[in-house]
User: What shape does this take?
Amino acid sequence: MRFTDQVVVITGAASGIGARLVERFAAEGARVVGLDLRGPTAELAGGADAAAAVVFRGVDVTDSAAVTKAMAAIEREVGPIAVLVNNAAIAVADGLIDITDEQWATERAVVLDGTFHCVRAVLPAMIGRSGGVIVNVTSVNGLAAYGQEAYSAAKAGVENLTRGLALRYGPHGIRAVAVAPGTVDTPAWRQRVTANPRVFDDLAAWYPLGRVGTPDDIAGAVLFMASADAAWITGTTLVVDGGLTAGGFRMIPTA
Ligand code: NAD
Assistant: This one.
């Protein structure tokens, strides 16, 4: 129980990795507030023990005023925010020629601006208390190029925002870290590949550990980075990718 009575705010909480984060933080005693465009899935809403500890609010992270209002309401009505997990994201089309201005702007608005809005809204209260943790869920796409260039550029922006945050606000007792997943089997990802179900098998072959990730693989890393066990870790990224970024290619067996 690493988060007993701590208020943990998670964006993009209604699906995939965010939904699992809600359950895992609640299971370790946190009072969780999920922010999302939509409500929780039936599965989450019905979660037995977690139910009492979990609240959902409809918030679009691209709306700076709505984010500021929501964070103030959480501080007032739920309690001091100890942990913010910026997890909401979308991924627009591949490539840089056919992509529209609107797609580019939307990508940036959700991933980079959305993270900034949430960070700016929680910082003053965290500074006032000399404590708080911000975990940004980024991607291996923010560390190297794997296609999805607009998404990649926005995620790389969040990577550097994390380092800036750590430097500037570390002296105020605030930690800022990133967790960068490789491919994770979530509903969002499955939707993208329904046209070609074999892609999961093919992708798994690129991963030295022989499979893509699960929401639990990522949640375990996020909870560790948010916990007191990571008290001297800031301004860095924990890559959770089954070994994908360890090298350019999988090694060819020689024996
Ligand atoms: P997902 O689409 O299942 O969940 C994302 C959630 O964010 C959704 O519930 C969606 O409604 C919400 N959201 C989108 N725009 C929003 C907005 N403007 N305001 C508030 N909420 C909004 O995605 P996922 O696969 O669980 O990914 C979670 C995080 O992990 C994302 O940051 C993603 O970039 C990252 N990630 C995922 C993978 C993967 O393969 N699934 C790989 C690397 C990184």
Observations:
- The pocket of nicotinamide-adenine-dinucleotide is lined by residues 11-12, 14-18, 36-38, 60-62, 87-90, 110, 114, 137, 139, 181, 183-184, 186-189 (CB under 6 Å).
- Residues 10 and 85 are 5 Å apart (CA to CA).
- The beta strands are 7-11, 31-36, 54-58, 81-86, 132-137, 174-181, 237-240.
